[in-house]
Amino acid sequence: MSGGLPPLAEQTVGNTPVLRTDDGYWAKLEGFNFGGIKDRAALHMVEQARRRGVLRPGAPIVESTSGTLGLGLALAGVLHGHPVHVVTDPGLEPIVERMLAAHGARVHVVREPSPRGGWQQARMDRVAELLADLDGAWWPNQYGNPDNPAAYAGLAAELAGQLDRIDVLVCAVGTGGHSAGISRALRATSSPALELVGVDSVGSTVFGLPAGERLMRGLGSSIHPGNVDHGAFDEVHWVGPAEAVRAARRLASRHFATGGWSVGAVALVAGWLAR
């Protein structure tokens, strides 16, 4: 009977629902994917690398992540037969670390931030070491790989089919992949007048502010990702961790829709804009 089922990725990634909240905005519930929104980017980057031959059969995949992309890469590793090495830091939530290990990924935790570039640069330095040590290893480079934003054309098409009109798109910004990919696709098709609003973390350097200590995962950066399309944004909001937590708890208690730091931060800004 299982032979008639579609591939695992088609069953678990994409075609996620939208939710109308009582704050007046629509939420795309990417938590319905296996690991979250970045499953889309992880699968697409791996599949494109395999198609081009830069990722050889059975070769290791090595990437820096704060968690969500790592889950997507773990899925891609299971589907395509690649060992996955995830480089992270002590801020990784224990439950995410256990999920990564349960799905076969090897987790490498750096112990000290880099004097220049903080935890993210320390992670990138460890990625470079692993790429040198592991034969044939491939680095997706989620920060600069154009296949990252390209992966979200499907999500944009889903939104266009689910909603009559999209005036404003609110996105958390870390690597810049989904904000760039979704907005480009929507502006090129169903929503040419779309306004793009970025949500960043206090202490992040993405939009030119000085680097500071960041507690939140999933948004913000201490480096300058090439996939961030700065010119695409109409406005940017910076959110602190306490505000994000309150907004995430509000969303969960009112709508049974759960998420982490970035979900709370986006919900806060989207609710403010809708009001």
Characteristics of this structure?
single chain; 275 residues; alpha/beta; Rossmann fold; 2 domains; three-stranded parallel beta sheet
Structure description:
With 275 residues, the protein is an alpha/beta fold. The protein folds into two domains: 10-31 and 145-274, Rossmann fold (3-Layer(aba) Sandwich), CATH 3.40.50; 41-133, Rossmann fold. Helix content is 41%, strand content 13%. It has ten helices and eight strands. The protein has helices spanning 8-12, 38-52, 68-80, 94-102, 118-133, 147-150, 153-162, 177-188, 241-255, 261-274; strands spanning 18-20, 26-28, 61-64, 84-88, 106-109, 168-172, 195-201, 235-239. The protein has a three-stranded parallel sheet, sandwiched between helices. Strands 6-7-8 form a three-stranded parallel sheet, sandwiched between helices. The chain has a two-stranded antiparallel sheet with strand order 1-2. The model has no long low-confidence stretch (mean pLDDT 93).
Concise account of the structure shown:
With 275 residues, this protein is an alpha/beta fold.
Layout of secondary structure:
Blueprint: H1 8-12, E1 18-20, E2 26-28, H2 38-52, E3 61-64, H3 68-80, E4 84-88, H4 94-102, E5 106-109, H5 118-133, H6 147-150, H7 153-162, E6 168-172, H8 177-188, E7 195-201, E8 235-239, H9 241-255, H10 261-274
Parallel strand pairs: 3-4, 4-5, 6-7, 7-8
Antiparallel strand pairs: 1-2
Helix pairs in contact: 2-3, 7-8, 9-10
